[in-house]
TrEMBL record:
Highest taxon of source: Bacteria
Listed InterPro entries: TPR-like_helical_dom_sf, TPR_rpt
Keyword tags: Repeat, TPR repeat
Protein name per Swiss-Prot or TrEMBL: Flp pilus assembly protein TadD
PANTHER family in the record: NEPHROCYSTIN-3 (PTHR45641:SF19), TETRATRICOPEPTIDE REPEAT PROTEIN (AFU_ORTHOLOGUE AFUA_6G03870) (PTHR45641)
SUPFAM superfamilies recorded: TPR-like
Organism of origin: Amorphus orientalis
Membrane-spanning intervals of the chain: none
Amino acid sequence: MAMARGRLDDAAIAYEEGRQICQRLTDADPTNTESQRGLSVSLIRIGDVATARGRLDDAATAYEEGRQIAERLAAADPTNTEWRRDLSVSLDRIGDVATARGRLEDVATAYEEGRELAERLAAADPTNTEWQRDLSVSLERIGDVASAQGRLEDAATAYEEGRKIRQRLANAADPTNTQWQRDLSISLNKIGDVATAQGRLDDAATTYEQGREIAERLAATDLSNTQWLRDLSISLDRIGDVARARGRLKDAAVAYEEGRAIRERLAAADPTNTEWQRDLIISCVKLAETGRAPQDNYARARWTSPRGFRQAAGWPRATRG
């Protein structure tokens, strides 16, 4: 709870206390697999706090200690799917830290091992939606590494495999699950990014628009959800980028202005949030680069005024010319 609320000091204390308890239980009875697993999970959580604080060395150490325990448990009983999933999570976290440190080779190894585990679990029970989502996350991370290394075909393949899983979850498993809807929107944006890098601007525009539609539906259902609003602003940025690359500066300006209106609302809501402030600056720069600075009053009312917030879900979309 403390971690979710951003109280990192409180979270660090609680997780460390939990780790110490599990360590004592493990020392007292090394054969107790429950306390061993508790210790592994505690280490992952301690690593999460260290990551959030930017202490990547500490995070890497905690994740590695957790991985070693999870690996021993998984090796002792390969049929225990919970332990195998724990190991997959540990490997993903190790890969995340390696990514933050710029160690792409280490990243690729950790993510690939995690993907193999996630793939076996997903194949063992195709009805387990948690395992299916785990696999889609692993594929996304592998795609991110491939994209960073310039291996665009490999990135496109990984992203597309992940998108198919997320499409099934979002459409068939539970269309009301907002996390799965958001996952699908993210996959579409990443596929669009690869298409843009490959010069396939028509494909990129189509994919980005599909992602935007999902992001807008989510944002309209809960206008207090800042994550969904920011997601929508990112989708609008992508749409504007492709329009500008195609020479459609008016369309680009309209998309950028709508995204800027959202970011203006977020930046005003929390002036201490540097990420949101930076987003707003980016939107302003992009607008300037189109040679236009339209004041899209419709977009502004839609996303910045209290009345617009109340009515956004029912208003039609602004016309893009």
